[in-house]
Design a protein that fits this description.
Chain lengths: 381, 174
């Protein structure tokens, strides 16, 4: 796929596909290692001169994300270093919100998650960790093409800036456990409701699969299980399931639970040891796997917990705050060194596309190269 | 069907005559007598002395009870017995309760009205008995039951005849 920011004369290939000895799971795609060379004990990946030829064959390219422009919405908020030094909350557009109802009080625990977009590199370790922790099915290329991916956490990637000098912004997105969850209101069978710790719970047994909740979720983090992936799994592979997490059958909605099994384990251990729950007793799978420590989980009712302190930071904002869903996931503005007139994409005016159209650049590239690049690279997907 | 009351019936062939006769019978002091006509006759209710039905008041009271029952049921189930936090909305969420409140109001009012009608008319007891099959087509009757105030079969027959009854039927043993 042609991406903004890639030089016109460069082809990028991902290594790690087409493995011969990894069994059924690993033998996907094309091995790119033959194109690399070896010098001074280290593999050299760059610098190879290649020629692309038109094959006139079709190859399906699939992706979990089709659109890479924020369309002027306040999604990934950014600021510059100098602006941040002047005002730590720069780049965040505060909205006037009112509600006809008072918020519920959560006296026991109040679980929350903080994601620092400044630390996040978009490495996707959290996605893999979540996948293995929560028994999330791997659907394969065919069903990703149909939009039936099952990730409970995903990394959204956005391009911004001009086509000549695009910038990438990434954002890990999981269930926001909104206090005013729009998904819960529309469930006709009350299969998804809040518990007294503020978790947006799913009762898999109660779900009848209307998928209203996924339609009403502003963050699009709910996943519908179209197939019996559990039953399809071959004999020794079923041992790879996490026994702490239920497997979901066909026709049931599922989503991030804030690793509720880890929360239960952490609180129960604290109870068994006859001590109060302390910060750090529970770490979610994505938090544990994050090499940049961008994800922090904890109890907001504990004022000294790390997440409570991060929520007090001026850099923290709530995604799509104007919907008044009151998410329990706080994102922290990304601070860039570069000086630019406007980086946040959500200044004073709403709905103004502040950024260059990244899509257009892709089209231009295609015209220059013909179909060769797309087809050649596509083999690796 | 219980013990049927006997009595005496006078038949008219004209509705207006029957209404006039009914007024006279009421003025003669009878209280429990009834008029049987094939169709609603204007002025007959006033002539026989039928007062306004209490059913609307019963229906209103039952409807109000139903409304309160709807509120109470939902308050108890949603906010006391099994509170569920759905989308951050309050446990006692008025707008969501309106349909059930409405439905219970209607249900209580409707069932009470029908029940009250049956009780007041002493249904399914049929009283008086079939006096004449033509009463469903072109004849009009006044029936004085035997347990009415100052009932006397002969005196009643005299009265009905003097009021222009075309036929007299005594209904004693059936």
């Amino acid at each position: 796929m042609i991406q903004p920011g890639l030089h016109d004369d460069v082809v990028a290939l991902a290594v790690g596909y087409g493995r011969k000895a990894a069994g059924k799971v690993g033998n996907i795609g094309v091995d790119a290692y033959p194109l690399s060379s070896f010098a001074k004990g280290k593999p050299v990946f760059a610098g190879r001169v290649v020629t692309l030829k038109k094959t006139s064959e079709n190859y399906l390219l699939v992706s979990t994300q089709d659109h890479h422009v924020m369309e002027g919405r306040a999604i990934v908020l950014e600021t510059t270093k100098s602006a941040f030094e002047k005002d730590p909350s720069s780049g965040i557009h505060k909205h006037q919100i009112f509600s006809i109802w008072p918020q519920h009080q959560y006296t026991k625990h109040k679980w929350a998650l903080s994601v620092d977009l400044n630390s996040c590199t978009g490495c996707s370790a959290c996605v893999v960790a979540c996948q293995s922790e929560n028994n999330v099915p791997v659907v394969g290329k065919k069903y990703v093409l149909e939009g039936r991916e099952m990730h409970w956490i995903r990394i959204d990637r956005y391009f911004k800036g001009t086509p000549e000098a695009p910038e990438v912004a990434v954002m890990p997105l999981m269930c926001q456990h909104c206090e005013n969850a729009p998904c819960e209101t529309v469930c006709p069978v009350l299969a998804t409701v809040h518990n007294d710790e503020g978790l947006n719970d799913m009762s898999y047994n109660r779900c009848v699969g209307t998928r209203y909740c996924a339609n009403n979720c502003p963050y699009k983090v709910r996943r519908f299980n179209w197939f019996n992936y559990v039953k399809k799994r071959e004999e020794p592979l079923h041992m790879s399931y996490n026994p702490d997490v239920t497997v979901r059958p066909r026709g049931v909605m599922e989503k991030c639970t804030f690793c509720v099994q880890r929360i239960r384990r952490g609180t129960n251990i604290a109870k068994d040891e006859k001590r109060a729950f302390k910060d750090g007793d529970v770490k979610t799978a994505c938090q544990e796997s994050c090499p940049a420590d961008a994800i922090v989980f904890g109890d907001l009712n504990d004022a000294n917990s790390k997440v409570a302190r991060l929520f007090q930071e001026k850099r923290t904002y709530k995604l799509l705050e104007e919907l008044n869903a009151v998410p329990r996931v706080g994102y922290m503005t990304r601070v860039r060194n570069a000086e630019r007139a406007e980086v946040s994409g959500h200044g004073s005016e709403h709905g103004q596309p502040a950024h260059g159209p990244a899509k257009d650049e892709g089209k231009e590239d295609k015209k220059k190269h013909g179909n060769n690049v797309q087809q050649h690279e596509g083999e690796l997907v | 069907m219980g013990q049927r009351k006997g009595g005496i019936a006078g038949l008219w062939y004209d509705d207006h005559e029957c209404v006039v006769a009914a007024t006279k019978v009421r003025e003669a002091g009878f209280k429990k007598f009834d008029a049987i006509t094939p169709f609603p006759v204007h002025g007959m209710e006033e002539a026989v002395g039928i007062k306004r039905s209490p059913i609307p008041y019963i229906a209103f009271g039952a409807g109000a009870t139903g409304l309160l029952a709807g509120v109470g049921l939902q308050y108890w189930t949603s906010a006391v017995s099994f509170p569920l936090n759905v989308g951050g909305k309050p446990f006692f969420s008025g707008p969501a309760f309106i349909p059930v409140m409405f439905e219970l109001t209607i249900l209580f009012a409707a069932l009470s009205s029908v029940g009250a009608l049956f009780a007041m008319c002493r249904l399914p007891k049929i009283d008086p008995p079939v006096i004449d099959p033509d009463l469903t087509s072109h004849k009009f009757a006044l029936f004085i039951p035997e347990d009415d105030v100052g009932y006397n079969a002969d005196r009643c027959e005299q009265l009905l005849k003097s009021l222009g009854a075309k036929e007299i039927k005594r209904l004693s043993d059936y």
